[in-house]
Amino acid sequence: MKKKLLFVESNTTGTGMLALRKAAGWGLTPIFLCNRPERYLGLEETGSQVIVCDTNDLDELKKTIEANVSKEEICGVATTSEFYLEAVAELATHYGLPGNPPQAMRTARNKSLTRQALAKAGVGQPRFAIVKGEADLAQALATVPVPCVVKPADDSGSNDVLLCQTQEEVARHASKILAISTNMRGQATAQTVLIEEYVDAPEFSVEMFTWEGKTVCVGITEKSLTGYPYFVESRHIFPAKLAPEVEEEIRSTVTRALAAIGVKNGATHTELKLTAAGAKIIEINARLAGGMIPELIRHATGIDMLEQQIRCSVDGPTDLHVVYDGHAGIRFIMADTQGVLADIRGVEAAKSVPGVQQVIVTGKPGAQVQPPQNAYHRLGSVIVKGDTYEATTVALDAALDKIEVVLEAAAIKS
């Protein structure tokens, strides 16, 4: 009987380790393939068989799997890491298991390929230009004038995403990105820069599940960002408060976008801006949402998105009939100034605010902190469930008002 579920790396939050524990709880044997097991806090408690190998080399992955696992025992291949979606698609195809076409994952991972696919399909998106070297800059700036957004084509977590106000700033930031040859997982980067029209409009994300080409919308998340020039998510509310006709436009735009890049199976998290001219796709992530959005969905609908995503690697999701029970929201704890973290106070007081479901602190005393330039600079979060959108936002604000980020030299409010 096929009982072994292969995981190729994971993200480094609790979600990745929780996925392994869930698989073990279903009677499966999770096989965790990774190159640095020490990266994963709590890995030894997941019930997984850990195999260390070069996960950035597809041929090495195949050899390692074949040396340790019988093909007849493998029921699926999964990951919770953005950086290994393409490898998982290649392995699933190789073993004849559920998954996405490798080319679809290649297109989703490389945002320049995403832009080209959406343009070909006529899906709404910002104006853009692709820069692969300094020689491309002049033409790019003629296509997309400043102010514009400059970002790497294949990174994650808002890393190196910058709003540039001058051509000189664009050139400097593009040069910085082009010089980065490996990412945080040691993989070769595309060394490609996207220059995009800055769209000043409300932002949303759309959480979808696709199985055998049929797509279901679980819901739309309202997103708030920190101040510019960086684009770090500071608050999410699920579900967003939207008119039915607006919801339909957003859903249909994203469905067309997913078809354009070729998604066939699994979760997707698509970010867009809602403009006067309609919805414009910012990016498509062929994975579960980050930022604890799956947890908000669980509170608001009872649907366990992580469980459904793992099932998409094996035999498909269960019935995704969505019924909303109020709203859920998250706000992130952040530093307002740069310094050394001394303490984060007021956690118990924040937990006492009606509606608060959990308060998580990830910042460690003694660590260097700063106003966030990417998601990795956040220091924790507060999650609230409310009967209404308004009650949820009020409780989030009340809880955050009780949290104090204390630096060694001064105390500041979040």
Automatic annotation (TrEMBL):
<feature type="domain" description="ATP-grasp">
    <location>
        <begin position="115"/>
        <end position="314"/>
    </location>
</feature>
<dbReference type="InterPro" id="IPR011761">
    <property type="entry name" value="ATP-grasp"/>
</dbReference>
<dbReference type="InterPro" id="IPR040570">
    <property type="entry name" value="LAL_C2"/>
</dbReference>
<dbReference type="InterPro" id="IPR052032">
    <property type="entry name" value="ATP-dep_AA_Ligase"/>
</dbReference>
<dbReference type="Pfam" id="PF13535">
    <property type="entry name" value="ATP-grasp_4"/>
</dbReference>
<protein>
    <submittedName>
        <fullName>ATP-grasp domain-containing protein</fullName>
    </submittedName>
</protein>
<keyword id="KW-0436">Ligase</keyword>
<dbReference type="Pfam" id="PF18603">
    <property type="entry name" value="LAL_C2"/>
</dbReference>
<keyword id="KW-0067">ATP-binding</keyword>
<keyword id="KW-0547">Nucleotide-binding</keyword>
